[in-house]
Structures are given as structure tokens and as C-alpha cells.
């Protein structure tokens, strides 16, 4: 059974080239996060149902909703794969495996027991560095959503200025999309140790 593992890169540029040549086993997702290669097992049903629920609530017009799409972050040795990427329909390239971060309106990550620190930490910084206007963290461990907006700063100093925490059951206003997200049917993970983030 695959578990999340990380390999630290000494040379980020060399690791980026190595990352491009990796062919992971079926069912394993691989991301490059600031020079570190992170391998993750396939997510569980709670995770997948939340992603599908969010996707269903975002209208197909004018929005394109893409699952597990690699992002190209300018000036970063990073190719994260958010659980959901939302961008205006018609702005993405016609083909290829990378979407430039400057085209993206919203990224969504659903927290798993092995991704807590990444989703709240390094990915928050990477998405802010990529100037993605909004980042939604959906946390079935803590039964809340964290909406981050207004990216500021560069590189590993980048962050989001705005932060709103909403408990499952209360709506989340995704103002940029003109959507009020219903969270009442989001499932929770049981038997997982609670944390104190964000």
C-alpha cells in the first residue's frame, strides 16, 4: 500500500527535469512542491465526494472546472496538482498538461490525513506566489472551509491577506465566481487526529 513520501531536492532545477520524467504507478499522484517530489495515494471517498459536490455547484458557463490538473507557477520549482481548478471558460490552452497559474481564478484542496501541513502551509504560499486570486481549503478533519483571497508577496514569502473560516453546514461565498457554496452535505473523516490549523 502506497503512503505519502517526500524526496528533498538539492538542486531544484535538476529536480524539475527529473520530475518531468517520472512515470508514477497507477493510482499514485505526484506533485513538485518547491523542489520536493511528493507522492500521494489515491484519495478516499469522502474526499472524492466533496470535490464532485463543489464541481457540481460551479456553473459550467462561464467556468471551466478541471480535476487534478497540473499548474505552472511562474518563477517556482513547483507543479502542484489541486483537487479542483476553476478558470474562465476559453482561457486555458487547447492541449498540454500544464495550466498557467495566471489563468486560474480559484483552486480547491480537500485535506486528507497526510496532506494537512501541505494544504495549509506550502501550497498556501505556492498558490499565493502564483497570484491565484482565491484558494479554498476544505477540511473534513475539522469540518470547516478556509477561503483565502488577495494574494500578496513573492516566492516563499507569498501569502493571502484575506482569510475566512466557515463551518460545514454554513454557506461559503465564492464572490469571484458568483457562487454561494452549499457545504451541508460535505462528509467528515473519522478516526483522524484533529489539528489546530489554519
TrEMBL record:
Classification via Pfam families: Uma2
Keyword Hydrolase: yes
Classification via Gene3D superfamilies: tt1808, chain A
Gene Ontology molecular function terms on file: endonuclease activity
InterPro entries: Nuclease_put_TT1808, Restrct_endonuc-II-like, Uma2
Keyword annotations: Endonuclease, Hydrolase, Nuclease
Domain Putative restriction endonuclease: 19-181
The keyword Mitochondrion is annotated on this UniProt entry: no
PANTHER family linked: SLL1072 PROTEIN, SLR1083 PROTEIN
Protein name: Uma2 family endonuclease
Species this chain originates from: Streptomyces ferrugineus
Amino acid at each position: 500500500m502506497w503512503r505519502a513520501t517526500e524526496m528533498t531536492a538539492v538542486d531544484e532545477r535538476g529536480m524539475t527535469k527529473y520530475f518531468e520524467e517520472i512515470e508514477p504507478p497507477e493510482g499514485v499522484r505526484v506533485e513538485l512542491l518547491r523542489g520536493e517530489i511528493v507522492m500521494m495515494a489515491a484519495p478516499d471517498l469522502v474526499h472524492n465526494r466533496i470535490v464532485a459536490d463543489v464541481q457540481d455547484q460551479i456553473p459550467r458557463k462561464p467556468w471551466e472546472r478541471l480535476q487534478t490538473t497540473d499548474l505552472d507557477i511562474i518563477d517556482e520549482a513547483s507543479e502542484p496538482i489541486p483537487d479542483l481548478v476553476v478558470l474562465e471558460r476559453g482561457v486555458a490552452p487547447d492541449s498540454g498538461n500544464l495550466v498557467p497559474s495566471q489563468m486560474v481564478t480559484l483552486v480547491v484542496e480537500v485535506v486528507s490525513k497526510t496532506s494537512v501541513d501541505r494544504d495549509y502551509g506550502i501550497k498556501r504560499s505556492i498558490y499565493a506566489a502564483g497570484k491565484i486570486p482565491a484558494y479554498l481549503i476544505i477540511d473534513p478533519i475539522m469540518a470547516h472551509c478556509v477561503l483565502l483571497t488577495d494574494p500578496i508577496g513573492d516566492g516563499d514569502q507569498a501569502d493571502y491577506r484575506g482569510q475566512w473560516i466557515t463551518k460545514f453546514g454554513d454557506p461559503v461565498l465564492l464572490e469571484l465566481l458568483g457562487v454561494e457554496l452549499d457545504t451541508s452535505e460535505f462528509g467528515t473523516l473519522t478516526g483522524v487526529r484533529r489539528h489546530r490549523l489554519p
